[in-house]
Structures are given as structure tokens and as C-alpha cells.
Amino acid sequence: MSELFAAGEARAASVGREAGGCAAEAACFADGEKGSFAGRIANVARATKETDIELALNLDGTGVTDVETGVPFFDHMLDAFGRHGLFDLTVRAKGDIEVDAHHTVEDVGIVLGQAFAQALGDKRGIVRFGSSYVPMDEALVLAACDLSGRGQLHYAVDLPIEIIGTFDTTLAKEFMIALATNAGVTLHIRSLSGENSHHIIEAAFKACGRALCDATRINPRIAGVLPSTKGSL
């Protein structure tokens, strides 16, 4: 892994111990007898003929992001996802954007999903479920998730226009499919109102980040216990 991501891992471990909000429970156990959750970090790299991606994720961060994908609107959405989910997220992606942004957006979703799966480990002690309503001016979006191990997306988002800057708005769904599938998350996203596509998509990314923040946090009442009646996730 590159020096960039080695440095990102060290920073992630440091800020994770100081995090508040959704990371508070993890901080509670940083030095406790129940075990350490300071290591809920992941570094993932993926290279194909279409894209070359490196990504670092800290579940117990403070929302520090550093994103470069070559697709400005997508960078903005990933920044919103990390900041509002309180995930520390570093992304470096190079793709065939001279064709279009499809491969880059989808493959970042794949790598981010893999990072979530890696950072969650065996999922012991997690809350598992999360949901969030996020308003953005006239737009209102709901995201709800279950870290079930059964990756699937249920997406009902109405978008008035097809292009925002250089970003094809249909790619928001492609990203969410890749994220849910590779993270093993059942993810529902629904737009309840909205007229501006920028507002709707941004509310969706923020809501997704906040829902995952809730679902991935450590529940101190079940530290070390898997939240499943069947004993596996």
C-alpha cells in the first residue's frame, strides 16, 4: 500500500480514539477490558483496465475527507457522505473519464463497499440497523440500512434532470448498488420530495452516510455479541 494510505491509517487510528457522535461508543472501549475497536479501519486498492483506485476508511473517525476521483460532483458527494457519516475517508481514483464517469463511480462504490466489509470484521457488538431522514431545502430523502450480509439496494429516487455538471445522475444509483452489494448491506433509499436533482442526490448521500454511521457504531450493551438470532451476519 502506498505511503499516502500508510499515513492515512495512522491518522485514522489517532482520530478514532477522539471521535464523538456515532463513534462515541467505540471510544468508550478503546482501552477497556471488552476489547479494542480502535482498529476499525481498512485500506483497499483495486486496479483494472478501466480504473485504478486506492481508498482508506476509518469507521470511528470525525468526518475528515480527502477525495480525488476526477469527477467533481462525485467528489462533492463522497465528501458529504464521509463528513455526515463521521467516517474518515481518503480516495484516490483514476479512471477512463474521457469515455464517461460510469466506471469510476461504480468502481469507487465497489472499493468503498469492500472497505466497509473489511473494517467491520465479524460485526460483533454493532448496532446493525440505521436510518436517517435528511432534508435539503425542498428535498427530503430517507435512507435505512441493515448490515445483514445480504447486499442489496432498494432505490426509489425521482430525479428531474439527467446531468449535473459532468455527472450523469443515473450514476448515483450505480454507486449505491456497488456499495450495498460489496459491503453486504441491505440499503433502502427513497426520495420523499424534491425538485432540484443536486439537492436530492446530496440528501441521499448524506442520509446514507448517517444511516451507516448509526448501524456501524458499537453498542456498549452488547460488546462482543453478534446482533443476530441465527448467530451470523
From TrEMBL:
Top-level EC class: lyase
Primary subcellular site in the record, as a coarse category: cytoplasm
Protein's UniProt keywords contain Cytoplasm: yes
Gene Ontology MF terms in the entry: imidazoleglycerol-phosphate dehydratase activity
Subcellular location: Cytoplasm
Keyword annotations of the record: Amino-acid biosynthesis, Cytoplasm, Histidine biosynthesis, Lyase
Pathway noted in the entry: Amino-acid biosynthesis; L-histidine biosynthesis; L-histidine from 5-phospho-alpha-D-ribose 1-diphosphate: step 6/9
Entries under InterPro entries matching the protein: IGPD_sf (IPR038494), ImidazoleglycerolP_deHydtase (IPR000807), ImidazoleglycerP_deHydtase_CS (IPR020565), Ribosomal_Su5_D2-typ_SF (IPR020568)
EC number(s) recorded for this UniProt protein: 4.2.1.19
Reaction(s) this enzyme catalyzes, per UniProt: D-erythro-1-(imidazol-4-yl)glycerol 3-phosphate = 3-(imidazol-4-yl)-2-oxopropyl phosphate + H2O
Family recorded in the similarity comment: Belongs to the imidazoleglycerol-phosphate dehydratase family.
Protein's recorded name: Imidazoleglycerol-phosphate dehydratase
Organism: Raoultibacter massiliensis
Gene this chain is encoded by: hisB
